[in-house]
Amino acid sequence: MGIGGRISYARASMNVSQSSRPMIGALSDVLAALDAHVTRLTRLEAAGDWALAFPALDRLKFVAVLRGTCWLMLPDRDPQPMSKGDVCLIGRTGYAVASNPTLPPVDGARLFDELGSDVLRLGGNDTVMLGGGVTFAPGNPVFLLDMLPAFLLVPGRSDGAGAVANILALLNDEAERADLGNELVSARLADVLLIEAIRVHAGNADATGVGWLGALTDRRIGRALQSIHADIAQPWTTARLAGIAGMSRAAFCAEFARRVGKAPLSYVRAWRLTLARAALARGGSDVARVAAEVGYTSQSAFGHAFRRAFGTSPKSSTRP
């Protein structure tokens, strides 16, 4: 798979709403380049009074409810009720899950570690939940974490959430079986769950909302983003991207920055360097080739930009 390759499961034959179609290419690019995948899929079965807290980590996490109800608590937010079929993605923040939001939580990560198992049972199974951390290629989670909100909820009753419900049912079936390859199947299903949850959220997002996912589904800014991701090596200019968006240069720059959080060419540069770092880390490509593939005509300019972004040279990032 080359630098601009796609992950095949991101184009799985599930139903995808028209509103989410424009963002699939860019989302696939990002998840593929960052080598995003779910690690340590955990299961919580609980009944009665319980509350567990989990620490902030520099990675994406998800929580899904397979049965019953619970509360999700995050800093500076009102407690969020969750029920069967709901999935949430959590960024760089600690969080807690509980049967009642007023209960003081205990350290959930410590309980799992002390148990030495990925299944924790607390008094029954009135509520059953799955959790997982999403890891990325070393050094590369920043691009996506900076683009996603700290908390993203996909209710099971959302439009287009049928695929999410199907994946959750399959994950639950796998958890209750002990067949050969069970862990591998569950891990792949969790990867697809991550993509489908983001799709559904983007498809149901307010078109005026701020954020990268909202920008991808915007009629104008989305066209520019899709063009960038379709061919990052192009000599992109603000004027050219504004033309693709059908906007004046000034209006495009202001709207792009408002939605994405970066100026257009800052986004192009960040994505180029993220792609380059991932390619070098995989090995098999020399620095000059990678620089050209992401749009740098000068290896010297590429090296300078790379060191400024990551504090190290491209060559030192290359895997033998």
Structure, described:
The chain is an alpha+beta fold. The protein has helices spanning 21-33, 108-115, 141-147, 162-175, 182-204, 212-217, 221-230, 238-245, 249-260, 264-282, 287-293, 299-310; strands at residues 37-46, 51-54, 60-67, 69-73, 80-83, 87-90, 95-98, 106-107, 119-122, 127-135, 151-154. The strands form 2 sheets. It has a 6-stranded mixed beta sheet with strand order 9-1-10-3-6-11, with helices on both faces. Strands 5-4-7-2-8 form a 5-stranded mixed beta sheet. α1 crosses α7 and α7 (221-230) packs across α8. It is globular, with a radius of gyration of 21 Å. It starts with 20 loop residues before the first helix and ends in a 10-residue tail after the last helix. The model is unreliable at 4-22 (pLDDT under 50).
Poorly predicted segments = 4-22
Distance between the termini: 18 Å
Q: Give the strand content.
A: 15-25%
Q: What sequence of helices (H) and strands (E) makes up the elements?
A: HEEEEEEEEHEEHEHHHHHHHHH
Shape, per Cα inertia axes: globular
Task: Write the SSE topology.
Elements: H1 21-33, E1 37-46, E2 51-54, E3 60-67, E4 69-73, E5 80-83, E6 87-90, E7 95-98, E8 106-107, H2 108-115, E9 119-122, E10 127-135, H3 141-147, E11 151-154, H4 162-175, H5 182-204, H6 212-217, H7 221-230, H8 238-245, H9 249-260, H10 264-282, H11 287-293, H12 299-310
Parallel strand pairs: 1-9, 2-8
Antiparallel strand pairs: 1-10, 2-7, 3-6, 3-10, 4-5, 4-7, 6-11
Helix pairs in contact: 1-5, 1-7, 4-5, 7-8, 8-9, 10-12
